[in-house]
Amino acid sequence: MKTDFIRKPLSLPSEDWITDPLAFLGGPSVIPEDVRRTNFPIITKEDVIQMMVSIQQDGDEVVNEFKEAYRNYVGANYAIATASGTSSLHLALVGAGVEPGDEVIVPAFTFIATAQAVVAAKAIPIFVDIDPITYCLDPTKAEHAITNKTKAIMPVHVHGLPADLPALRSLVDKYSLRLVEDASHAHSASIHGQLAGSIGDSAGQSLMADKNFMVGGEGGIAFFKEKEDYERALGFLDSSGIDYRMSWIVAAFGLSQLDRLPYYDDIRARNAAYLTNALSETKLFSGPHVPEGYRHSYNMYRIKLSPERLGLDDLEDYRVKDAVQQLVNHEGVYAREWQNVPIPGHLPFKNRRGFGNGYPFTLSDRQDFGYELNQFPETLKMLRNSLTICRELRTPIEYERIQAYALAFKKIDENPHIIRQLVEQGNDLSIPYERDARLG
Amino acid sequence: MSETLTRPETETVVQKEQYFSLSFVLSRVLNSGVIMSIEKNDQELKRLEKSIAKLTKTKYVSLFNSYTGAIHGALWGQDIRYQSSTRLNHPSDQERKFLEWLGISLVAEPHVKQAYSSISLSGSNLRDVDRLVHETGGEAPVLIVDFTELGFGPVAAIATNDENIWKKAERLKIFGAFDLQTMWTQEESEPELQPTAQFNYRLSPLVAACVKLTLLRRNLSS
């Protein structure tokens, strides 16, 4: 039978593994090749039974049941279930009153859909650099980017850490703007107990395959605080004729998965805390910073490298990162780049053709959209000196697996001379943001 | 989990006779692990694309998560974009609204080529699909097949023999075929194919599996 069941367990880890020869040099991998696979989403009998129930029901009712269940979970006032995260962001923007030619401030570091949703709303994305600690939109720099054309600020809760919404709320109130959350990474993430998606004036959230909470493959949901904004989004759907509806099949899967979301969240948080603590015992690596009162959902886990703490600061940071990536991948931990070019450096924003003939960019008076990469030094720095664990930590992995991940990083940390050798051997590696832009 | 096990009084689109086969195929897809990533679930989408290519006797098929998405793909593939004009035979109210939103004008001049032809498949006309496809043959460079009325949610496809139309339509999609083929980079040597505005029109593999099964069993439907 074709199955995603993982049949082979990991061995119980031992601290002795740290002193083994590196797998890159022929030593034993911390996680052998035949036990590296992780699995998410976890499909249970409840998912199958829910599907059998939903198939007998009216499709619109299934979607509505899911939408209401998740809206309640998030604590939002109004919601529209959609076919994708991009469409949910589009509706969140339109609902918030964004109109053709308006400017919307977004972070330079995000998935491309954040900015494409702004274009879909026929508005102009204005990219702003990130905070070097949280990797989310920097509120101070956002304020500098406000013009008389600015309608909204759309922060992204990068990797699942909520952006500084209290500071951004002050900003939008001060300038009479709207706050739209891109909560696509941030299912169950919160600030002082209030869940991402319910804090801004509106929000969009992806529910696709790579998310902590996914419906059946592709989906999204838009949230609104005010009835007027919700009705404006519904009115847009009617006037544009666009069909953004979610399929009942994916909604059915969302219903059964939602029941187990808090359990998966707890395991992910437990594992992330374990790894962050273990990395704090190394010199080279550090885990994500989570401000007091914030709850990170760890859709991705970005690890910062500090080569200077291992005496490697004479080497190019991105080469150190590349060497570490090779070494840790050989140990069985698939840490990698997630994004290598700030979004304004991606083709759609270099070309600015939009819907055709440059629309909606032609609505702007700007000669300079501020899309040059040197405008985003903190994003560039982050892209040079960090690696990301994605799917491998998203799944509710076993305790022994998170222990093994930690041991793999500790093992690399014990071998700075090998990192140096690898870097000094050299190759034609270019700086991440000088390579072709990757979507993820 | 929903507390209601059956709701016999509710009007459903999916026929009772299909419950078992659809539940079975959905369970198989769930169990196979394909929904865990874009890369894996693309396999399921390709299977449906092949079925539609065979059905429509066309070389290239692109899937969309709605009829309007497919319209957008069909137009974009032919460079019918903002400030362009085109012609449709008997456009619906929804089509008029959607084209207006895209900034595309509708004209009535018969010398203007029809942008696309379309058929909508439902449980009641599924067995006539070969005839319906045949009747639209050659009317337009693109055939849109709308599967939404089958009852699995919004889903449609464009079918064409023009590779360029297909390529451009795929480029319109975030997570389109090119993004997978190029290891997620969007770099493109042909300037006219480079991505511009993009929408996530990607279809769920679960929906694709249901449509494919329904097409396979169309001659068995009552």
Give an account of the 3D structure.
The complex is a heterodimer of chains A (440) and B (222). Chain A is globular. Chain A has a domain at 45-255: Aspartate Aminotransferase, domain 2 (3-Layer(aba) Sandwich), CATH 3.40.640.10. Chain A has helices at 45-54, 59-74, 85-95, 112-120, 139-144, 165-175, 227-240, 248-279, 317-330, 347-351, 377-385, 391-394, 399-413, 416-425, and strands at 78-82, 103-107, 124-128, 150-153, 178-182, 190-191, 194-195, 202-206, 220-224, 285-286, 294-295, 301-305, 386-389. The model of chain A has no long low-confidence stretch (mean pLDDT 96). In chain A, α4 (112-120) links the parallel β2 and β3. Chain A has 440 residues and is an alpha/beta fold. By secondary structure, chain B is of the alpha/beta class. Chain B has a single domain, classed as Type I PLP-dependent aspartate aminotransferase-like (Major domain) (Aspartate Aminotransferase, domain 2, 3-Layer(aba) Sandwich), CATH 3.40.640.10. In chain B, 46% of the residues are buried. Mean pLDDT of chain B is 88; it is low at 2-10. Chains A and B meet through α1, α2, α3, α4 and α8 of A and α1, α3, α4 and α8 of B. Chain A: Belongs to the DegT/DnrJ/EryC1 family. Chain A: It holds the Pfam family DegT_DnrJ_EryC1. Chain A: Keywords: Pyridoxal phosphate. Chain A: InterPro entries: DegT/StrS_aminotransferase (IPR000653), PyrdxlP-dep_Trfase (IPR015424), PyrdxlP-dep_Trfase_major (IPR015421), PyrdxlP-dep_Trfase_small (IPR015422).
Please report the two chains with the greatest interface, counting residues with C-beta closer than 8 angstroms to the partner's C-beta: A-B, 76 and 76 residues
Query: What's the architecture of chain B in CATH terms?
Result: 3-Layer(aba) Sandwich
**What is the string of SSEs of chain A from the N terminus onward?**
HHEHEHEHEHEEEEEHHEEEHHHEHHH
Structural class of chain B: alpha/beta
Average pLDDT figure of chain A: 96
Q: State the low-pLDDT regions of chain B, or none.
A: 2-10
Percent range of helical residues of chain A = 25-40%
Task: Give me the number of helical elements of chain A.
Answer: 14
Uncertain regions spanning at least 5 consecutive residues of chain A: none
* Mean pLDDT across every amino acid position of chain B: 88
What is the class of chain B in the CATH system?
Alpha Beta
Shape, per Cα inertia axes of chain A? globular
Count of DSSP strands of chain B: 6
